[in-house]
Amino acid sequence: MRKRSTVIPLLALVALGLPTPATARPDDTVVSGQARFQVLSPTLVRTEYAGDGRFENASTYNVVNRSFPTPAYTSRVTDGWLVITTSALTLRYRVGSGPFRADNLELKAAGTTASPWRRVVCATGQLCEAEDQAREGMLVAADHPGHTGPGFVAGFSYTNNDVTATVRATSAGRHRVVVRYANGNGGDGRHEDRTLSLSVDGKAPRQITLPRTADWRDWRTAEAEVDLPAGEHRVTLRKTAADSGNVNVDSLALLTAGQPYPGTRATDDCRFGTSCEAETAQVGGAAKIADEHVGYAGTGFVSELVGGTRVSHRVTSVPAAGTYPVVLRYANGRGGDGKHEPRTVLVNGQPHTVPTTADWATWATTTVQVPLPAGTSDLTITCPDAGCHVNLDTIGVNTSTQHLALGGYRRSLDGYTGNNGAPRTFPGLLYRDGWFMLDDTPSALRTGNPRADRGAQPYQDGYVFGYGQNYKTALGDLAALTGGPKLLPSWAYGVWYSEYIDRTAADFRDKIVPDFRKHGVPLDVLVVDTDFKGHNLWNGWQMDQAKFPDPQGFLEWAHDQGLHSTLNIHPSIRGDDPDFARAQATAKGKLTKSGDNYLFDWGDPDQLRAYVELHRKMPTDFWWLDWCCDGSGSSRRGVTPDTWINEQYSKMGSFAFSRGFGSLQAGGYSGGGPLQTGPWAEKRTTLHFTGDTSSTWGTLKATIGYTSAEGVATGMSNISHDIGGHNDTTGLPGSEQYLDNGQLRYTTKLPDDMYARWVQLGAFQPITRLHSNHGDRLPWQYGPAAQASATKFLNLRERLVPYLHSLAEQANRTGVPMVRPPYLEHPGSAEAYATADSQFLLGPDLLVAPVTTPGETAETRVWFPPGQWTDYFTGQVHQGNSWATVTSGLDTMPVFLRSGGLLVERTNNVTNDAQNPSDELTVHVTAGAKGEFTLYEDDDRKLSSRTRIVQNGDKVTVHPAKGWFPGKVSKRDWTVVVHEADGTTRTVRAMAKSAHQKVVIHI
């Protein structure tokens, strides 16, 4: 028996293998006083402001590289403005004007004018919304009424959770820092007075008490006195290790003696020539900020304006007095008064009629001409006494351009049922108007240590992307700056079996794997879910010897079968666990109790060491951090907690397999919102598992758009859904029995058509992982037609591994994800945006439009991008820039090869990737076309090769591999399948050619 050592090296906690710190070079840098600009590429400029003059040259946790080839650019000072111009953008900064804000830093790119930085400074007597300020480890929530503004900062549940407000004392002397908060029954089960710590300008904190309130809807104030000189200061509310936390903070204010708590919100300006968000304006009266209707720009909209409401922006930089177009983006559905009709709004007192929209999820624009004085003035939208009954999204001053996100991400899709539209996501890199600002100010250094405290001095560090419609360029800049998506081993792109049901080593050895072989279904990865654990099925830390009597032997058996395995982990430990005493001792007594469990702070080196050591006795290839109902996290400031622990997991195995982008401590199981530290580092280590969804046609449909949306928003390429969905919705009895608390139960199953279509989708996703909550997901558990379909597509998936692994390597280098929305390849086509939720491209050349409707035969409406497209299954040819209805039975689905594209796959079905070198490959081409593809192969990513395959009309040339690794493939049989324009195919073979030999195949 071939032996393989356990793949679990103990994490080196201090000496991490880190990139060399990035250092700015003089030739790409422009300094203007306390502002520094680094021109990294024609479409990417670093903007840094250091009030103390100390610029940061070290790499950060997000930004691991600034060593870009210096692009051509010019810089000059004109009329008091520093102007930096590249071939793609112009950036202007008003010299000597201080920290970046809306009115002193301007971006022009691809016809769009934007203010990349928004900086809200709260002067004495102004309401300072907590959600407008810097936050550490916390989300903005809005689920309790009575708050002001868009919401409140929720939780303060973990050490170093904080909010830091920039305030301006208008005069020197004694001030009051007043905090508006709610203190109900906390996540720790207690309802008691709480504490936070208050510090000013980084000085020693002092504890303040926040008395309990009746419930979470009961908002009150608490205060502390401080002596301040006039000018800007940083006021921080933080949960230290000595504080109880577990409160919600709505806002704060810097007040003088006797000054009442304000109602006027501090805001930043709206620059002339830009589109500004309604929710960031001064919002008065009964108007509320909401986010329940999709399609809005920014973080929300001002909802259903009524009489007495007011939305006001201070407009700056108007070049001359005159009348200018003001563009309102709005929705006008059926109002609270029961009417659905044109409405009247008042813009600076001027009436304007707003037409209806189809509903509240349909947004439109309307333009009104408004006189404005030169310089700065207020622009105010109000309503007649009868009310406007419209939702207001944006206000564009002398511009109609909208900053609308393309794609989006979230921590997971847990609980998503598919019955209420697409899941809500959060914006990332790509926007329709072609610019983005990555604010890296909150990020720690690459070591994981926080940046130096700068006292009262302002500091900003952000990266301005100005890419227009060059979306691939933006993704390339992001990958170069923050690191590319992790290249997984080739076997990870094969077929995974994963099921939440009690399995034993004998089950896998004697039943499951033999059944895969018996039924001709490939298999690469065995996922062992939580029931393998001894002592406690949820958070035990030893393998149950009755189920897995020889854990190391099980892993070696799996390797001998050509398989890899992962174990499910929940990150807490019970006090009665056999390993608890040792873990607590390693943690030096710092593990904290929550209910029956003890929790880990991964930001503390002792606790992280204790956590990592618990894994040592459980051999596996990589770990599945399943999260759920525990509360471990990280107190490390400036690092997204998920990202931090996932990086540690990637050092313990081949890669991290987890939810991502946030933390349990900042939003619960599904993690509804993003953290300010962002999703940018996550892709370097992690295969993103999107969580527990419901098994519905709606969930299946939403999965299509979600994968590509997350990819373009974050640069993440490795995304894994539960193929088949997690939670049963049908109650159809399955094929297996199991015990649940002593009761005999049956597994459930999907309808045959839903199962077949879901497997079809999975075959073209980044990861194909069959998974369920005690539900049948194996082909032979279904009827003949569904079984045949699933078997066919899972074998196709396995044959595609060489192609998929090559796309994954491209993603690692270029930042362009494997699964792509159509607009990534065709940004000039309106249809490419309209179809992003129903079809996608796998690489540049394969168009996939999954079936999402029931029935053994389905009709799918497909838009074909420019070019010529050949149906992979039927050979039918479709001309580009056209629509067609494609009919498919369970044995086919709409998949099309672009003319000029080359699709490489294994020639024959194989049982797994690890034991089957790709010595027989087939290349699909279309007759008469020109194109090329580079096949990437590696040996556990240590040695690699690239084989360039070129089609030039009636000739296909395979160029000798560049680089190689011994023992993989020395000779290779090539087959070319030529798809003719009439729908027929022909096959040409070149047998047993050396991998180092040029092969010319005449077709």
UniProtKB/TrEMBL annotation:
Origin: domain of life: Bacteria
InterPro entries given in the database record: CBM6 (IPR005084), Cellulose-bd_IV (IPR006584), DUF5110 (IPR033403), Galactose-bd-like_sf (IPR008979), GH (IPR017853), Glyco_hydro_31_C (IPR048395), Glyco_hydro_31_TIM (IPR000322), Glyco_hydro_b (IPR013780)
Gene Ontology MF annotations: carbohydrate binding; hydrolase activity, hydrolyzing O-glycosyl compounds
SMART domains: CBD_IV
Signal peptide: 1-24
Residue intervals of the CBM6 domain: 126-255, 274-398
GO biological process: carbohydrate metabolic process
CDD domains associated with the record: CBM35_Lmo2446-like
Record-linked Pfam families: CBM_6, DUF5110, Glyco_hydro_31_2nd, Glyco_hydro_31_3rd
Protein name in the entry: Carbohydrate binding module (Family 35)
Keyword annotations: Glycosidase, Hydrolase, Signal
Species name: Lentzea fradiae
Family statement: Belongs to the glycosyl hydrolase 31 family.
Hydrolase keyword on record: yes
